[in-house]
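Demo today. Your pick:
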Amino acid sequence: MDAFPAPERFDAVVVGAGPAGLTAATYLGRFRRRVLVLDGGPSRATWIPESHNTPGFPRGIGGDELLARLRDQAEEYGAVIRPGRVERLESVAAAFRLEVGGVRFEAPTALLATGVVDRLPDIPGLEAAIRRGQVRMCPICDAYEATDAKIAVLGSGPLAQREAEFLRTYSPDVTVLTVGEAEDAPRDAARIAPSDLRFEPDQVVLSRADGETPFDYLYLALGCASQAGLACALGARQDELGNLLVDSHQMTAVEGLYAAGDVVRGLNQIAVAAGEAAIAATAMHNR
């Protein structure tokens, strides 16, 4: 005998309540679909102190405010948003069944907007420094605001060199700092330990035996881990970087299972996440 009550049915389930998941929920709600959003925890967008490349906000918008607006918009059109991390996703009888805290849900289509988790160095005060904009994760997002600043890029391999080359479009004063023992690190990079860095109110300071070097900004180039486990367990495929492979409608290799946002590509942009979510939600509705 089944120990669980019958699953609650929806037209679509969205896993993740970041920009991609909430945009998809708005589209599905406006398509008059009954949609459930499962919020597994804070989006990495909450770390954004102020974004100036999000379309429609020429004077900038903070991550928390943007997420609040997106949530309000999705709920305006009937999206049901519930907290909880999905513990199980399985395919059953032309539907997907998801389990969250012992509660089960079913829908004929599902969208994964589960994002990525950044690899972070062990530096005291790091999260607070990210929130006030001293430490940055995405030069595509905010390098413009670092024009002519003194910049350090912290990494453990060739990604740091690529980000430094990108940042030199904005400032000639870019230094690569390497952690770990990566053999392919740039020869001119300074090898340091995370403990060599500290955060002052208006500077990031590198302390070494030969003295201290202040920087205006520290960019992290340590990569991130895609949260694709739920999809891969059902047979979805990833590329060599761990991004989920999707078709032109954002569907994975699993029929009826879609993905959008950072879990799909390494560009990690709010505008891209919203666009992919719109494509996926429309395909889910049409299906």
Summary: Residues 129 and 278 are 33 Å apart (CA to CA). The longest helix spans residues 270-286.
